[in-house]
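Question: I have long wanted to understand how a fold can be written as tokens. Here is the record:
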Amino acid sequence: MALASAVLFGASAPLAKILLGSIAPQMLAGLLYLGAGTGLAVVHLGRAALGIPAAEAALRRRDLPWLAAVVIFGGCVAPLLLMLGLQQTSASSGSLLLNLEGLATMGIAWLIFKENVDGRLLLGALAIVIGAMVLSWDGKGIRFDAGGGMIAGACLAWGLDNNLTRKLSSADPVVTTMIKGLVAGTVNVGLALVVGSPLPSASIIGAAAMVGFLGVGVSLILFVLALRHLGTARTGAYFSLAPFIGAVVAILLLGEPLTLQLVLAGLLMGCGLWRHLAERHEHDHKHEVLEHDHSHVHDEHHQHQHDEAIAEPHSHWHRHEPLRHKHPHYPDLHHRHRHG
């Protein structure tokens, strides 16, 4: 799911590049998010109208502060800082600095939220990020000025957003992504109109909405689901492959040349990805008492009883009793214990 999220987001970049020929950057950012939010609203309302039960947990009152923070940092602050920064620095510097998002995501997960990241994973993540920087390099260097500082701030805001989104990963990702898209899209389109950006034609709006639905909406849903199972640092590392995916799509779609730079970036990213995929984290660990609500099936971590037959997967509030065992695992919803 993390790789599929990176593929969809990466593929949306060259498509957005085509649209930028006839639409202002901030207006496009807003329409992409609005397309994601509107498309997912249709999915959500259609699901309810057809009586299709959702196997996901509903948002609860205690989730609202986290949701507000995600919308503010990831949907409003970060895009605004990015647009302001790009106005004051070169495109090459901006492209390189945007790779700081992956480092910010992993650094915050490791240092602040104490997610387990060993040396193997750090080396793999470093290889992926270096590959992304190689892909973005155009030989002109990094111009770190006020604009560069704003772009770095945007990456920090997105890194924080990715870590805070983990707090919502047990809730229905369609609903959380829909809210984020509608609010962030409305804010960005509103700001674009305030600064004088005109609304594009209906066909351009439709194209931007479709790109946003897949490249932002569906991609974010997959990202949230990956957070649920992999944790933030690993999901962030996989998602750092998005620039490489975008470059490959640009070659196939726009006829851009295959360069040594792209091959080298691909080798570095492939090496980093292999180190992550080959991970086997296993040790004796103890589960403390835990009560929460999320989509699940009855496995070794879910041994509770139901009064009647129930379909799987399903979602309801349930309690985990203390348990000690040993098996391969990731820092998912049930394995966020500390190490050493």
The chain is about 65% helix and 10% strand. The beta strands are 282-287, 290-296, 314-320, 323-328. The longest helix spans residues 202-230.
